[in-house]
Design a protein that fits this description.
Number of strands: 0
Structural class: mainly alpha
Oligomer: single chain
Strand content: under 5%
Number of domains: 1
Helix content: over 70%
Order of helices and strands: HHHHHHHH
Distance between the termini: 30 Å
Largest sheet: none
Radius of gyration: 19 Å
Shape: globular
Length: 199
């Protein structure tokens, strides 16, 4: 190994250690898993109540089901972060919490604004694309604080979100699209967070 190769290897090791040090330890694997379960339950509720939305009333019910799911998931995840912040976080990690909150906030605000805009014009078939895309962008924005293996999930969500924006309503509004997408993603993230905690 030449001196240059050794120097490059040392730099790579330092970067890896810095990346690990930047990881945010306030994420909860249990909260992520619970929010994945919420998505599965919301999909089942949609399937039982309206199936695939066929009119404006169904579209509003669809929006309400998934809005409640999102609100519950946000409450569980941020509640877990708040509990960790109060009970376990060091001074550096408390400072880091503000950075984490600000990194994902634009994606959350944009997702909410676009969702209510779509609701206003009743183009309900655009909602899944908006949700998948904003979720993926939010994960990318948090890339320095989440496990590295989350990045392919973020990329998949951005790609699926873009595709869903052009999909026919008969596909994009199926109950299983958000149930499977968000359910599996949150369970995968739960596993990744749990593994990093052990490591």
């Amino acid at each position: 190994m030449t001196e240059l190769e050794r120097a490059l290897a040392d730099i790579a090791e330092v970067r890896e250690r810095l990346a690990v040090a930047q990881r945010f330890r306030g994420y909860s694997a249990l909260a992520a898993a619970i929010s994945g379960l919420f998505a599965v339950v919301a999909g089942a509720v949609q399937a039982l109540l309206i199936g695939t939305p066929a009119n404006a009333h169904d579209g509003r019910v669809y929006f309400a089901i998934w809005f409640v799911c999102c609100a519950a998931s946000v409450a569980v995840n941020y509640g877990a972060i708040a509990q960790w912040f109060v009970n376990d976080a060091s001074a550096r990690e408390r400072w880091q919490t503000r950075t984490v909150g600000l990194s994902i906030l634009p994606a959350v605000i944009l997702g909410a604004a676009l969702s209510f805009g779509v609701l206003r014009v009743q183009e309900f078939s655009l909602l899944p694309g908006v949700w998948f895309g904003c979720y993926g962008v939010g994960l990318f924005a948090s890339r320095l604080t989440v496990p590295r293996a989350v990045l392919p999930i973020a990329g998949a969500f951005v790609a699926i979100g873009a595709a869903l924006l052009f999909a026919p309503p008969s596909l994009s509004l199926q109950w299983w699209i958000p149930a499977v997408g968000f359910g599996i993603a949150q369970l995968m993230i739960a596993v990744l967070v749990a593994r990093e905690r052990v490591r």
